[in-house]
Amino acid sequence: MKNFFCILFIFLTSSIAPTAPLLSTIERGIRASIAEKYDTALALFDSLKQNNPQHPAGHFFFAAVLQARMTDLETQKWQDDFHKHIDQAIVLARKNIDQNDGIIPFRYYFGAGLSYKSLQLGREKKYLPAIKLGMAAVDELEKTMEQNPAFFDPLLGIGLYQYWRSHLTKSLTWLPFFSDQRTEGIEKIIKAAENSEFSRWAALSSLAWIYMEEQQYEQAYDYAHQGYDEIPSRFFLWPMAEAAFRQEKFALAIDQFKRILASLQSGQELNNHYNELVLNWKLAQAFAKIHDWPQAEKYCNLVLNLKVGEKVKERAKDEKKGARDLLKNITAAQKK
Asked: CA 181 → CA 65, 281, 304, distances in Å?
């Protein structure tokens, strides 16, 4: 299952000379990455950094694709390459931090680069440096907005920070400095979805997962579906399926979970089988909810028999325990 970090997947862009062909290349790279065509996206952004070696955009996007790939496939395989490219993007952006090439300010790249690095450090469980970088990133994004009020893309990063900080500290809102900013954060993300240059798809996915947390499942499904209509991919299918499941629309959820599963099994990507395990567990639960005991039993057994990669074995324990418990319940139900 995609954890909430995956909603921080923010795509933005810039160029030394913002010509229409270059912007077209960037958009094609973004679309390719969201559609899980990672090699195509990496090739496009590699050419961008080769052609513009002093600009942060190429390294920034290259790192963004690597991070998206790692999140999608539940792996840290490319983390060293990610750090190499995001660090270079940050260095280049800082060097010319007050420069504006006509599309996106370099200060934005600096803030967004810090945000990406913060996210990756969080995934590596280096929480203190991740928090420090995250706060610095938001400061830079807010400065970018102050200097460029018609540039809406930073609203996504700022809004995500406001929402998730408030969500994770909502039991502390009675203390100073811990005000509830969830509504303000959501409003900023909606503005990013409606007005940003290249962050629309990330904002739609973000809103889907956020409304899931708020238990507003119909809205969650609608935002994910908007994105899926534009770019059919797992990026949007995951929140669509989860929202359908939580609305108890089990037939719809089963169809969508199966489509994600088929997508993972047909791809040639690195596969540690963790996502397959989660999907089989979701399908087992959905079939049990509609009392299709043979199918529920089938998917429980798939969960129990699936061997996952060594690095995700610990995470798989909950699903395997759940499958064992559900099998006992299925046996009891069939005896009635």
From this structure: 30, 34, 42
